[in-house]
Amino acid sequence: MMEGRVWKYGDDVNTDVIFPGKYTYQPMEPAEMAEHALEDLDPTFAKEVKKGDVIVAGFNFGCGSSREQAATCLKAAGVAAVIAKSFSRIFFRNAINTGLPVIELQDGTDAMEKDDTVSIGFEKGTVIHEGNAYHFPALPEEVLAILEDGGLIPHVRKELGKE
């Protein structure tokens, strides 16, 4: 199980808010992208996020454009996972490809608040918050392998023996 501090957001957090559109066409390394994560929604996030923190949100997290920078900047900022009631399908896939765990969880997210602590068991599909256990479909072995390897590209390289 991994444990992390919660950052709480609402519904429809779109990719323009996760990674501001004004930076989309500026070449940046992931660490530099992380400096701008969520800056228009929460100016404190990029300055105060710590490795292992968890974002908890409502419905439709990652809606908007298909830019991969949204998932990349969160992972580079140290976010260990995003828990939301639902995700945009493109963001969900981009997150997995980047190596950022995403969990759809209907129950329990409303009770989670900023600075709370959650524990996540990816293999068993469990989120624990304040003594309550909430369940989500356990991540498939193939997805866990991609996440463990740090994303799809490192995973494919490993599978091909080209690490």
What percent strand?
Answer: 15-25%
Which spans have pLDDT < 50 for at least 5 consecutive residues? none
Give the % helix: 25-40%
Number of individual domains = 1
The CATH topology annotation reads as Aconitase, domain 4
Give the SSE string: EHHHEHEHEEEEHH
| Secondary-structure class | alpha/beta
What is the strand tally? Answer: 7
Number of helices: 7
Calculate the mean pLDDT score and round it. Answer: 95
Main sheet: strands, sense, barrel = 7 strands, mixed
Task: Categorize the overall geometry.
Answer: globular
Q: How big is the Rg? A: 15 Å
As laid out across the biggest beta sheet, the strand order is 4-3-2-1-5-6-7
What does this protein look like?
With 163 residues, this protein is of the alpha/beta class. The protein has a single domain (2-138), classed as Aconitase, domain 4. 29% of the residues lie in helices and 19% in strands. The chain contains 7 helices and 7 strands; from the N terminus they run βαααβαβαββββαα. Strands 4-3-2-1-5-6-7 form a 7-stranded mixed sheet. α5 links the parallel β3 and β4. The mean pLDDT is 95.
